[in-house]
Amino acid sequence: MIMFLGCRRSAVRFFLNSLRWLLGKRLYLIARILDPNARIFYSQEGEDAILARLFSAQKNGFYVDVGAHHPRRFSNTFHFYQSGWTGINIEPNPSAEAVFKKQRPRDINLCVGVSNCPEKLVYYEFNDPALNTFDSDLAQSRDETVAYTILTTREVNVERIDSILERSLPFGVDIDFMSIDVEGLDLKVLMSNDWVKYRPKCVLVECLLHEFSLEYIQNSDVYSFLVSKGYVFFAKTYNSFLFIEKKFAESKVLTN
User: Fold this and answer.
1) Which of 246, 252, 237, 196 minimizes the C-alpha distance to 74?
2) Strand, helix or coil at 144?
3) What is the Cβ-side half-sphere exposure of residue 64, based on CA atoms within 13 angstroms?
4) Is CATH 3.40.50.150 the classification given to domain 42-255?
5) Which parts of the sequence belong to the Methyltransferase FkbM domain (predicted)?
6) Phi, psi at residue 237, to the nearest 5°?
7) Between the chain's N and C termini, which has fewer beta carbons within 10 Å?
8) Strand ranges, E, within the chain
């Protein structure tokens, strides 16, 4: 009986490991075989599906992912990577650096933090890395919950996004969309860009406002800032705002 149970457990482990393997790199291919029209998305709230619709006529493109977290998990850019796009992934968590280099070898992968001025900030690392943050107030409020715990803190160098793009953006490349998800410092990241020199067609920003009225959205600092830079509000998911550059918005109205 003991031998039987041991074999059974081994078989279960083998099945689960095989399933994880199949649901990894090959999930996309399997889905396409089962249904040629199937598409796989990875964002938490369908942000990449909205972006895919906006860029449906564009085969190749370039993204900048600030606060990239993981090559696939909750990624707003991995769908596009699978479709042949490339970009820059910026993630201050040193544990993620090797994973990005392995799973996103065509991308430029940078281990650095972003804020509105170059300095050293305390980086709070949680039991769920998706919640890692430089925002001390947000870190403390999450640490007080049952589900989340601060595992460690460290000092990390942060830079302005325009400085990072100055040295890392390939020559002659335009940014199609920028995704910003930095757990509380999103406005500071926006303020760190040169919006004349580096002007994405679309800007996706995490904004932790759980109120869906248009008036509430319009009163947010992120909304006011991006509108002042010539962007128009396009969509909101539970935790994200999507803004479109005015000229790009006009082209979508004319062609769709």
Assistant:
1) 237
2) coil
3) 26
4) yes
5) 65-233
6) -100, -170
7) N
8) 62-66, 86-90, 108-110, 113-114, 119-126, 150-159, 177-180, 202-206, 231-236, 240-245
pLDDT score of 191: 98
Tokens of 25: 């790199």
Predicted structure pTM score: 0.85
Structure token digits, residue 132: 């890692």
Contact 180, 189 (CB under 8 A): yes
CA separation for the pair 155, 22 (Å, rounded): 38
Q: Over 176-240, what HEC string results?
A: CEEEECCCCCHHHHHHCCCCCCCCCCEEEEECCCCCCCHHHHHCCHHHHHHHHCCEEEEEECCCE
CA distance between the termini of the chain: 65
- Spatial contact of 210 and 169, defined as CB atoms under 8 Å apart: no
Tell me the C-alpha distance between 241 and 147, whole Å. Answer: 26
**Mean pLDDT for back-to-back runs of 10 residues, the chain (256 residues):** 41 48 58 71 96 95 98 97 98 95 98 97 94 93 93 96 98 98 94 98 89 86 97 94 94 64
Distance CA 206, CA 236 (A): 10
Return the structure tokens found at 190: 């926006």
120, two tokens: 């050293």
Q: Are 234 and 211 within 8 A, CB to CB?
A: no
Q: How many beta carbons lie within 10 A of that of residue 67, not counting itself? A: 24
221 contact partners, CB below 8 Å, separation of at least 6:
187
Per-domain boundaries in the chain: 1-38, 42-255
Structure token pair of residue 21: 């393997």
